[in-house]
Amino acid sequence: MSARKKKAKPKAKPKAKPKAKPKAKPKASRPAPRATAVSREPKPVIPVPDDLAPLGAHVSTAGGVALAPARGDDIGATALQVFTKTPNQWKEREIEAEEATAYRAALAASGARFVNAHDSYLINLASPDDALRARSRASFEAELRRCRALGLDALVSHPGNFIDDRASGIARNADAIIEALEAVPGPTRLLMELTAGQGTVIGSTFEEMAALLARLPVALQERVGVCLDTAHTCGAGYDLARDYDGVWARFADTIGYARLGELHLNDSAAPLGSRKDRHALIGEGHVGDAAFRRIMTDPRLRSIPKVIETPKGEDMVTNDRRMLRKLRAFARG
After folding, report:
1. How many CB atoms lie within 10 A of CB 300?
2. What stretches of 128-243 show up as alpha helix (H) in DSSP?
3. How far is Cα 71 from Cα 56, in angstroms, rounded to an integer?
4. How far apart are CA 105 and CA 313, in angstroms?
5. What's the pLDDT band for 36 if we cut at 50, 70, 90?
6. Exposed, middle or buried: residue 128 (CB in 10 Å: 0-12, 13-18, 19+)?
7. What does the alpha-carbon distance between residue 124 and residue 132 come to, in Å, rounded to a whole number?
8. d(CA 204, CA 229)
């Protein structure tokens, strides 16, 4: 029997090539995000050497005090004010050798030529409460030790609140200063800051500050001076806007320029004689541009370090850069 012939399988039709998908239209590129205030502001060029006395601002020490000099450079500062600890807490700390070394190296690489600390807001050396005064004195001494470890030029301190009796408060304040300076020797100069006069605070008048300083022994006199804050003097009733020469004549006769170790340049959001401490941007308060222009061109004040504590605004650099440029422009006339 003959074998049956197998039927040939039909050849498979070639598969149709898949149609090419249309190319997707390129997505429209998103607009670049707007630059922040920091990036819009050009980094200032610090004149070297600076023909003015050191001029700068209070800068942050977040992350370590060694970061402060670079932050000063970022705003064009040749003077810096810092906190060496959290200012509204009693917790103290010591400056370790490694931290001091890092800070000094950063300072040497920066444009800063003057650095001061501001002490804790909690300190009240004039308090009639023995426990609070003792705690305040311990904190004040710790401030002086940190300044010595870092080699700071000055420590700015507010006189205390007398609470019970003004004369007794001045005496207690002076005694505590004497005890602390004798316990912590060093080159850092203590600068007592003139106040706006709110509540029972000491030191809102030139005469009262002079009385406080006069209680210090001769051996300590060279270590102590004053810091004049233009916003505070406005609050205390000293009219730099309308009686510039009169105010400085009274200062010279009562305290003396030799005592003036630093100026805090702040306009005042509170009116003259309000007894309130409210800072404003230069030229936007009750002191006004004209007074700051005179300060920046006054030969008696030319060598005095000057620091702003004006509002920072949305970031930590834009307002400070603008205020320092403005003050330098005033100095050029």
Report:
1. 12
2. 130-150, 166-183, 206-214, 218-221, 230-236
3. 11
4. 30
5. very low
6. middle
7. 7
8. 11
Mean pLDDT of 98-122: 98
Question: What global pTM score does this model have?
Answer: 0.86
Q: Identify the pLDDT of residue 284.
A: 98
Instruction: Report the alpha-carbon distance of residue 318 to residue 137 in Å, rounded.
Output: 37
Domain ranges of the chain: 60-332
Residue type, 284: E
Task: Given CATH 3.20.20.150, say whether it is the number of domain 60-332.
Answer: yes
Calpha distance 153→161 (Å, rounded): 26
Buried b (16+ CB within 10 A) or exposed e, 27-63: eeeeeeeeeeeeeebeebebeeeeebbbbbbbbebee
Nearest CA-CA partner of 153 in 81, 241, 85, 51: 81
Give CA–CA dist 65/67, Å, rounded: 5
Please tell me the predicted confidence (pLDDT) of residue 3: 41
- CA pair distance 126, 259, nearest whole angstrom: 21
* Placement of tokens 């300072």 in the chain: 107
Give me the long-range contacts of 325-328 (CB less than 8 A, separation at least 24). 325/44, 325/76, 326/282, 326/283, 327/55, 327/265, 327/282, 327/292, 327/296, 328/52, 328/55, 328/296
How many residues in the chain? Answer: 333
Residue tagged 């590129």 (tokens): 29
- As a whole number, mean pLDDT of residues 203-220 equals 98
DSSP 34-88: PPPHHHHSPPPPPPSS-SSS-EEEE---TT-GGGHHHHHHHHT-SEEEE-SS-TT
Query: Pick from 273, 267, 264: which is nearest to 311 by CA?
Result: 267
